[in-house]
Design goal:
Elements lengths: L2 H31 L4 H28 L6 H25 L10 E3 L29 H7 L6 E3 L3 H14 L3 E6 L4 E7 L6 E10 L5 E9 L8 H13 L2
Antiparallel strand pairs: 1-6, 2-6, 3-4, 4-5, 5-6
Helix pairs in contact: 1-2, 1-3, 2-3
Length: 244
């Protein structure tokens, strides 16, 4: 194989991988929006990232080989590969960048000493048989990474606080799955917009010694080992909505 043929092959691979990265990602998103399991779409997204990296490497080789102006057709393909590869890597940084420094955990709560629990899942639910207890090895990581998370205190009676919490939940678009005003507890689900991952939320309202109300909230991902800070951000959004 002569040098020109090698250059042409690298450029062709770059263009194909560059186009394939976004295409595979869009297919993954479409499948998830059409009710495919979220992990199917996310695995296709990971494949898209791999294709983007391939496009960058192969495109870089093609650009170097044509740096003196030879092989104009190959150079165009290499540029396409590099450009689309950069797009895929940029998508990764934009989506995952804010959570790059958080620990790889997926169960966050405002009360690490006594986290809210989850009621047993009904027959046929995805959580049937899953261990929903709070992982003890997450405690130190949550304390270090999210020192701002704490129980929410309100100087109003528990019943009034409970209604306010329900209103905040609805305003955030969560789906309430259990509602027990007598015990001051409710559970909800929040579904992410793009990949349709479902996270479980448990909220507990108690009366304080002074007659006010304190709330503890727990947000737990169903899939994956890490959450890129999504559960902590959900708790912060809830606290902000309650205090409006």
């Amino acid at each position: 194989m002569n040098e020109a043929m090698r250059d042409a092959r690298a450029a062709t691979i770059a263009a194909a991988a560059g186009i394939g990265g976004p295409a595979v990602t869009l297919v993954g998103i479409a499948l998830v929006q059409l009710s495919a399991p979220p992990m199917v779409g996310f695995l296709l997204f990971q494949l898209g990232i791999l294709l983007g990296l391939t496009a960058l490497v192969a495109g870089g080789i093609g650009l170097y080989a044509t740096r003196e102006g030879a092989g104009a057709g190959g150079r165009t393909k290499a540029l396409i590969g590099v450009g689309l590869g950069v797009v895929m890597i940029a998508v990764v940084f934009v989506s995952a960048g804010p959570g790059a420094n958080v620990p790889a955990i997926n169960d966050i709560t405002t009360n690490l000493a006594d986290p809210p629990g989850f009621a047993p899942a009904p027959e046929g639910h995805r959580n049937v048989g899953r261990d929903m207890s709070y992982p003890e090895d997450f405690v130190a990581a949550v304390e270090a990474a999210y020192p701002d998370l704490a129980p929410i205190e309100l100087a109003i009676p528990r019943d009034a606080a409970y209604r306010r919490y329900l209103d905040a939940t609805k305003s955030l678009g969560w789906d309430i799955t259990r509602d027990n005003p007598e015990h001051g507890t409710f559970e909800a689900e929040d579904t992410t917009k793009v990949w349709r991952f479902v996270d479980d939320i448990s909220v507990r309202v108690r009366t304080t010694p002074t007659g006010g109300a304190t709330i503890d909230i727990r947000s737990k991902s169903r899939d994956g080992k890490g959450d890129l800070g999504a559960n902590a951000n959900r708790i912060r959004a809830f606290a902000a909505a309650v205090r409006k």
